[in-house]
Structures are given as C-alpha cells and as structure tokens.
C-alpha cells in the first residue's frame, strides 16, 4: 500500500491524506443534507422522504439502545451525522484515489486507524459526559466498582478493550478492502497481460460492489455499538 503524505509543522506530524479525505467527505455530507432538506413541505417530496428516512433510521438505532430520554434527545443528531460521515468516508477509496509517486493524497480516511480511533474517542468521551450528568461524578465512578470493589480494574480494562474493538473493527474492514482492490489492480491485472486484465476487471467490479455493502454495514455497526456503549453508561445495572 502507498504511504500517506505526512508533513511536519511546529514539531507536529500532520497526515495530509486523512485531512483531505475527511474534509472532502464533510463537504459532501453537508451538501447532501442541504440539498435533501431544501424546500421542506408538509407533503414530503422525494428528496425530503430520503432525508426523513435516514433520520428515522438513525433515530431508531438510538431508541433501541439508549433508554435515557435526556441522552436520546442529544444523541439523535449525533447518530445521524456519524452514520452519514462514516458511510461516505468508507466509500471514498473505492471510487477515488489520488496518488503522486509513492504518496497517496486521497483515499478512505477510515482506512487509517487514527481516524477510526478519533471516532471511538468521541463515543468514549460522550459516554463519560452523559454518565456523569446522570449519576454525578462520584456516582459514575462508583459504578465501576459494582457489584464488588475488586472489579474496578477489570471494568477499566474493559473500557480500553471497547475503545480498541470499536475503532479497529472499522479500520480493519475498510483497510482490507482497499488492499485487495490494490492487489487486483496492480498485481493481478498486469501479471499475464491481456488475459489477466480481462479477468481482473469483473473481479474488481464485484469486489467494489461487495465493499460498498461492507462499508454500509460497518457504518451501521459503528453507530449501533456507539449507542449501545453510551446507553450502558446512563443505565444503572
């Protein structure tokens, strides 16, 4: 796989590849939402039906996994934006890649563990926030020591494993999809000339279609697990 383009500024490393992909997909999500929600009518048109369906879909994920009404009220929009953003970022590398030399400038941002860990960290911080609002700071931390106090370190380790599994599941699936597409296009297709090029073309198309499905499922899984994780923090067991 090609390297991401990283530059240094004030002693810090900045991944330009991830920044370009994330910014591009943020602009796409913003444009799509504005386009679909223009001219909202009492009798919904086709575009309005699409965005209302998406809102109902993500709102259903929140309602199914978060029992606290106050948390639900604040999480509905978060789940909607998170789902669209991750879905679009998952698909970017399947249809658009920009490479200069050995450096990749545009690819799926979620094929980078730093991006997926950032999303997982947002979920982690939200779970802490809602949990402390629900039970207070002391009450929230006491939950880690229930039903017996020696479970506190075990529950803290569980926090770390939840963070890693949430982020690395998404990263692994998207990264693997891009690796296989690269192998089909760069290794298999030119290996035996025109014969393998003919065979590689439908194989790449089939895998792209399957990757679109996987990217959609992974966006759904990430949002669902995020809501499950937050829902547990606002529910006293």
- Topology order in helix (H) and strand (E) letters: EEEHHHEEHHH
Strand elements, count? 5
| Overall pLDDT metric | 81
Q: What gap, in angstroms, lies between the N and C termini?
A: 45 Å
Q: What characteristic shape results from the CA principal axes? A: globular
Oligomer: single chain
Using the CA coordinates, give the radius of gyration: 21 Å
Instruction: Work out the strand percent.
Output: 5-15%
Largest sheet: 3 strands, mixed
Q: What percent of residues adopt helix (DSSP H or I)? A: over 70%
Give the domain tally: 1
Spans where pLDDT lies below 50 across 5 or more residues: none
Classification by helices and strands = mainly alpha
Helix count from the secondary structure assignment: 6
Strand order of the largest sheet: 1-5-4
Structure characterization notes:
It holds the Pfam family ATP-synt_A. It is built from 6 helices and 5 strands; from the N terminus they run βββαααββααα. It is mainly α. It has one domain. The strands form 2 sheets. A 3-stranded mixed beta sheet has the order 1-5-4. It has a two-stranded antiparallel sheet with strand order 2-3. The relative contact order is 0.14.
Short description:
With 237 residues, the protein is mainly alpha-helical. It contains six helices and five strands.
């Amino acid at each position: 796989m090609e390297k991401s383009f990283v530059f240094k500024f004030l002693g810090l490393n900045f991944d330009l590849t991830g920044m370009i992909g994330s910014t591009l997909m943020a602009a796409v999500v913003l444009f799509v939402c504005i386009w679909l929600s223009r001219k909202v009518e009492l009798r919904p048109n086709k575009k309005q039906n699409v965005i209302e369906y998406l809102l109902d879909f993500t709102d259903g994920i929140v309602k199914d996994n978060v029992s606290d009404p106050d948390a639900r009220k604040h999480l509905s929009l978060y789940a909607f934006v998170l789902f669209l953003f991750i879905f679009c970022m998952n698909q970017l590398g399947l249809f658009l890649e920009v490479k200069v030399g050995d450096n990749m400038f545009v690819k799926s941002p979620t094929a980078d563990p730093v991006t997926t860990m950032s999303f997982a960290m947002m979920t982690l911080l939200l779970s802490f926030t809602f949990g402390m609002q629900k039970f207070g700071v002391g009450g929230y931390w006491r939950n880690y020591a229930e039903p017996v106090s020696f479970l506190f370190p075990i529950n803290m380790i569980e926090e770390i494993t939840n963070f890693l599994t949430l982020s690395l599941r998404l990263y692994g699936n998207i990264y693997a999809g891009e690796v296989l597409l690269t192998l089909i296009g760069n290794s298999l297709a030119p290996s035996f000339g025109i014969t393998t090029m003919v065979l590689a073309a439908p194989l790449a198309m089939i895998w792209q279609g399957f990757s679109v499905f996987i990217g959609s499922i992974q966006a759904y899984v990430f949002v669902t697990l995020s809501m499950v994780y937050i829902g547990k923090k606002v529910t006293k067991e």
